[in-house]
């Protein structure tokens, strides 16, 4: 039966509703178990902290600013460091403008990765709950069979 069948044929929808009304009420324990399962599968409050795996990329997302200038050369090192710092001071506005779109892209990418990370965590939690429920159901189904085998 398709959804369109129910929408286009009111008699069929009414027949289905009548059949559903004839079904017996589930036991209270099953209703309580379903309530517990629904409550446990509710979305937990979101963590405001960034995931550990994204901390390092987050610290490096702004490509406009370089690490402090250094040099390993003993004689000409101080001159090179001075030249690097001077170049950076003079051209920093141009560097910022060139790198602006890259920084925006990096921020959007990190936000997307954080969202994917949260969704993956939630899916793993939901799968674990489903797995637990299926294991419990399987154990309940196997109990009568084990009792019959002992006879």
Description of the structure:
It is a single chain. The chain has 5 helices and no strands. By secondary structure, it is mostly helical. The chain has 2 domains: 1-40, no CATH class; 48-150. The two termini are 43 Å apart.
Mean pLDDT: 84
Bin the helical content. Answer: over 70%
Low-pLDDT regions: none
Beta-strand content estimate: under 5%
Order of helices and strands: HHHHH
Number of helices: 5
Care to count the β-strands?
0
Task: Compute the CA-based radius of gyration.
Answer: 31 Å
Largest sheet: none
Structural class: mainly alpha
Shape: elongated
Number of domains: 2
Through-space gap between termini: 43 Å
Region (Disordered): 21-71
């Amino acid at each position: 039966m398709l959804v369109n069948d129910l929408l286009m044929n009111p008699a069929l929808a009414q027949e289905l509703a009548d059949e559903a009304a004839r079904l017996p009420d589930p036991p209270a324990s099953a209703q309580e178990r379903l309530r517990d399962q629904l409550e446990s599968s509710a979305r937990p409050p979101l963590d405001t902290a960034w995931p550990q795996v994204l901390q390092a990329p987050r610290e490096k997302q702004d490509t406009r600013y370089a690490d402090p200038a250094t040099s390993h050369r003993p004689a000409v090192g101080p001159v090179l460091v001075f030249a690097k710092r001077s170049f950076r001071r003079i051209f920093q506005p141009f560097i910022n403008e060139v790198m602006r779109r890259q920084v925006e892209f990096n921020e959007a990418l990190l936000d997307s990765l954080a969202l994917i990370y949260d969704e993956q965590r939630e899916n793993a939690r939901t799968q674990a709950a489903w797995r637990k429920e299926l294991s419990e159901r399987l154990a309940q189904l196997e109990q009568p069979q084990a009792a019959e085998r002992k006879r």
